[in-house]
Amino acid sequence: MTSPASRRPAETRTDDKLEQSLYAKREKIYPRQVHGLYARLRLAGVLGLLGIFYFTPWLRWEGHQAVLLDLPARKFHIFGLTLWPQDFIYLVFLLIIAGLALFFFTALAGRIWCGYACPQTVWTDVFLWMERKVEGDRMKQQKLDAMPMSAGKLRIKATKHALWILFSIWTGFTFVGYFTPITELGARLVQFNLGPWESFWVVFYGFATYGNAGYMREQVCKYMCPYARFQSAMFDKDTLIISYLPERGEPRGSRKRGADPRALELGDCIDCTLCVQVCPTGIDIRNGLQYECIACSACIDACDDVMDKMGYEKGLIKYTTEHEMTGGKTHILRPRMVVYAVLLLVVMGIFAYSLGTRTSLGLDVIRDRNRLFRETDQGLIENVYTLKILNMDKDTHRYNLSVAGIPGLELHTDMSEIKVMAGDIMELPVRLRADEAELTARSSKIVFELIAADHPELAVREEARFLGPR
After folding, report:
1. What is the DSSP string of 125-191?
2. Which are the contacts of 402, defined by CB distance < 8 A and separation ≥ 6?
3. pLDDT (tens digit, 9 = 90+) per residue, 416-452?
4. Residue 370 — pLDDT band, cuts 50, 70, 90?
5. Which domains does the chain have, with CATH numbers?
């Protein structure tokens, strides 16, 4: 006789399970350490990304910090390139490129970003490494947490948290070092002379690292990260996913090493649960693809090691595609991949061209809208403009200004020289006068040209309109 719960629709039971998981008290996950090809790849990714983050602020370039986002000075140094707030368009390009790259690589290889490069994954791996060094392996950690509080347990826990806190503070300090010269920041930190905002961000970013990587861990991936929710929209039947092969592994069952599973009427899975023990989000990959899976491949390494010891073929858990699992052939070149690749290459090309042809001089021309034109005592037609000159170079420059487009056009300004400091914007009122006989239309096109006197390659041209009576 079946129970009432078993007779309920599968969708209802699934919803109930999800609701219980959302409101149930969190059970701490103790990921087992694993070794193998993918573990080495993750380690290389962690070391590479952390090396970039922690050592880049200490690099020097042409007398200044190589990468420095100097907000008070409105200068953003990126090695030999200096950008200004007016170059915000390049940030937009970078965000678009990052979004398209995420779409492309997700459609190609699933959640490879989450498993190998996401900051949450990278910093969590570091915190897990420190935890294992202090508390021991998975079994020792579980045993320690189950013990009542004692002097020994307090010492071990205090040591672990002290390491976590020191590493978190160093992370916060490094983060702020991208916005304040890190050598000056370090000197003031040693003297306990940090400013209020610098102190706030060091503590805030350090606390976020400590909380996310030390405590919340998989909870960030499962409940806070939006990527886990919309990733399925980018998956198709040819997307690489980590899957357990049930047709090969089922039915599960324990057996002696070297035993023939076919003789025992069993599959290759020995139900050791190592794939569950090594999972950082605590899922069982044998239940199928789940949104909590971050594609870290730890279960592949664990299962391959077991298969090797049992004398079975590796790949019971592996990277595969839905098409391949159903006996089909995986297609890498498919419409969505082509579209993503083309869009990504086009945007990257535009970005590279725009950055390569970028000039560190900007000019905006604003006509005086209070009066279209006026006639001078000499009978000339006069238009008034305000020029906004932006020097985005790292040096101060003097500029020569000229205008063309109407024969005999005269340029008048009250300034003897046009000198703009690095990063400054100058508003320059100018008056243009033309003979009415030279005006062939009510609105004539003119072109302002601004050239740096000491660097003629710094030049910019801007079109405007000259209004007259006809």
Report:
1. HHHHHHHHHHH-SHHHHHHHHHSPP-HHHHHHHHHHHHHHHHHHHHHHHHHHTTTTTHHHHHHHHHT
2. 411, 448, 449, 451
3. 889 999 878 899 999 999 999 999 899 999 999 999 9
4. confident
5. 236-325 (no CATH), 361-467 (2.60.40.10)
H/E stretch holding 49: helix 37-55
CA–centroid distance for 18 within its chain: 30
Cβ–Cβ under 8 Å, residues 73 and 256: no
Contact 407, 438 (CB under 8 A): yes
CA dist 145 and 134 (Å) reads 13
- CA dihedral 410→411→416→420, nearest 10 degrees, is -160
Q: Give per-residue pLDDT as tens, 375-425.
A: 999 999 999 999 999 998 888 999 999 999 999 999 999 888 899 998 788
pTM of the model: 0.82
Answer for the pair 344, 101: CB distance below 8 angstroms, yes or no.
yes
Strands 374-375 and 380-391: antiparallel
293 Cβ contact partners less than 8 Å away, ≥ 6 residues apart: 111, 242, 281, 283, 285
Torsion of CA 271, 272, 275, 278, to 10 degrees: 160
Q: Cα-Cα-Cα-Cα dihedral of 89, 95, 96, 97, to 10°?
A: 110
Rg (CA), the chain: 32
Grouping H, G, I as helix, E, B as strand and the rest as coil, residue 45 is: helix
Please check whether residue 442 is in contact with residue 468, taking contact to mean a CB–CB distance below 8 angstroms: yes
The SS3 of residue 18 is: helix
Q: How far apart are CA 249 and CA 287, in angstroms?
A: 12
Is residue 320 classed as helix, strand or coil in its secondary structure? Answer: strand
